[in-house]
Design brief:
alpha+beta, five-stranded antiparallel β-sheet, 5 strands
Length: 70
């Protein structure tokens, strides 16, 4: 990630889980969930608890993309 970028790196994805089905992969960086920055595990956990279908801003290989997890 570029210097100064805050986010959480995905280190494991359940191949049968909803994150894998949505296209989230090991090595992705989660920058935001529902347009809220996620720099710590607690921020990720809190943001995921606020929505049934969270919208994630992901950084992958120099690009950013939005993914909805159902």
């Amino acid at each position: 990630l570029p210097a100064g970028t805050k986010g959480m790196i995905v280190v494991n994805v359940d191949p049968e889980g909803s994150a894998a089905q949505a296209g989230i992969a090991k090595g992705d960086a989660i920058l935001e969930i529902n347009r809220r920055p996620t720099a710590t595990f607690e921020e990720v956990r809190e943001a995921l608890g606020l929505s049934e279908k969270p919208l994630l801003l992901i950084a992958r290989e120099g690009q950013t993309l939005f993914i909805t997890v159902e």
